[in-house]
Every structure is written in structure tokens, then in C-alpha cells.
Fold this protein.
Amino acid sequence: MPPPKRDKTDAPLRSDAQRNRERILRVATEELTRCANVPLSAIAKKAGVGQGTFYRNFPHREALVLEVYRYEMRQVADAAPELLATREPERALREWLDHLARFAMTKAGLADAIRMVTSAPGGPAKPEPAPVTEAAELLLRANEEAGTIRPGVSSDDFFLVIGGLWLIDSGEDWQSRVTRFLDFVMDGLRAGAPGR
């Protein structure tokens, strides 16, 4: 029996192909945040890739929009263990909240584009936020063990508390409002911490 054929998607991308893909995703995030209907050709041009390269990576708008969402979510999730490896748990959690806030502001800008591709009949479903939930759980447990937050805070509790992030207008001065909000969140998590 002949060996099974390898799907192109199973092979890791060459480093130049990976750089092209990531550049497309960064540009697409910026452009789709500004305008949900931005032409794909404009994204390709700004990313400095040809149409063939662009469509090899993202054959249609739906694939691009959902991959931008997954890419941003993965960036936030991957930041948690990286921060814990180089910072004290409490500092890691606070800095990770900044990553999460940038994701929330990007997602707010992408909301129209995401809604357009996921609301069509038979369209794809919006990706589940499992990686971000797992990252929050990792940070919460590290802080609980360090005694820097109150015991027993679950990721469900955490996301209920920070739900206000998604209500902040992603307009001009969102950074100062987000910083103040996240400082309140950290104060609430610290209340009742055994290490305080």
C-alpha cells in the first residue's frame, strides 16, 4: 500500500513564507480594524506581497478575517508563559492584562469584519477563545500559589470581571481608560490575598 499523501498544510512553512504570512496578518489586522470592507488587494499591496502569495495563504476574505482573529488570540495566549518565565506572577498578570486589552481593542475594530463572515448562512463559526482562557488560568494559578491574589478566582470569574474591557470605546484615548480599569481589576484580585 502506498504511503499516505502529505497535505501541504501539514508541512511547516519556510521561514520566508512564514514571514510573509505574519506580515499579511499584521497588515490585515490594522486595515480590517479601520475598515471591515478593505479590499484584499490593498492588504496584499501594503504587506508587500503579490496576489499569488496572498491568495495562497488566504484564499478568501473569511479565511483571512478568522485567521487574524486566531492570530491575535494566539499572541495574547502565548504571552502568558513568556511573561511568567521572566517576571514575578503579579507583574506577569498585570502586563498580560495589557496584552489582553490590546486584543480587546483590536477585536472591537474587527467586530464588523468578524460579524460579516460568521453571520452569513452556512458561514464559519467564530473561533472559541480557549487559548486565552487557558492563559488566564495559568496566570491566576501562579498568582494564587504566590499569594498575590485572593484564592479561588476561576477563569470564569476573571472574564466576568474584565468584561468591561469590551465596553471601552476603541477611539482615540482608550489607553488611559484601559489602564485605569485594569488597575481597578488588579486591586480587586489582590483583595483578600493571603500574601498581603
